[in-house]
Amino acid sequence: MTPRLLGRRGLCLLAPLFLAACATQQTGGAGHTTAISRVEAYFRTVNLQAVPFTQVWPNGSTGGGLITYRPGYLDMRYTLPHEMELKASERSAVFTDAQNGSETHMGLAHNALGLLLGNPVRLSGPVMVTDVQQPAGFVQLSLARTDNPSQGLVTLRFKDTAGSLTLYEVRIVDERRQLTQIRLD
Asked: Which residues are the signal sequence here (predicted)?
């Protein structure tokens, strides 16, 4: 094998290990602990009912509709690009596409989305906080599975106004490193 080919192939093979190593960094400091506690408190009381959302899929296409979320339950009803629905509970999800009549069942034990469907949502134990950012007026936390951080990363973005958190964006990077963005309007 030539050194040039080994270099490219080696980088491709090692990339997941480097990403996993980055994801396993432990956050520290009292400010980070406080932010994590505030986000857990937010998820104990959140009850989103038919909130408009916009989604950008990994291929750049967009869609949107209404989202309902409470601890342990998610319902995303798409109106764009056509009628679809994602219903998820603590352990599984069902995606229904009204255009072609298909129905897809998914387990959430190894899916990044499952990190947000605990009841209550706990940001310790099986869920690991990999990063905390707190620029003025905002809080951002990134989450991964403690036992296998390479399965995906969820980044939550909150507005922090007068001590009150409001979720405005969720970014999900799946195990194939593809990014899906969901913005609450």
From this structure: 1-20
Dist CA 65 CA 50 (whole Å): 9
pLDDT at 127 over 60: yes
Give pLDDT, residue 11. Answer: 34
- Tell me, what's the pLDDT at 80? 96
**95 with 108: CB under 8 angstroms?**
no
* DSSP-derived 3-state class of residue 1: coil
10 Cα distance to chain centroid: 29
Domain count, the chain: 1
How far is the C-alpha of 139 from the C-alpha of 136, rounded, in Å? Answer: 8
Indicate the pTM of the whole model: 0.82
Domain that residue 177 falls in: 3-184
Q: Which residues pair with 139 in a beta bridge?
A: 158
Alpha carbon distances (Å) from 94 to 76, 87, 97: 11, 5, 10
What does the pLDDT read at residue 42? 96
CATH of the domain at 87: 2.50.20.10
Full DSSP string of 120-174: S--SSTTEEEEEEE--TTEEEEEEEESS-GGGEEEEEEEEEETTEEEEEEEEEEE
Place of tokens 């009204």: 98
Tokens of 163: 């001590």
Residue 150 exposed, middle or buried by CB count within 10 Å (0-12, 13-18, 19+): middle
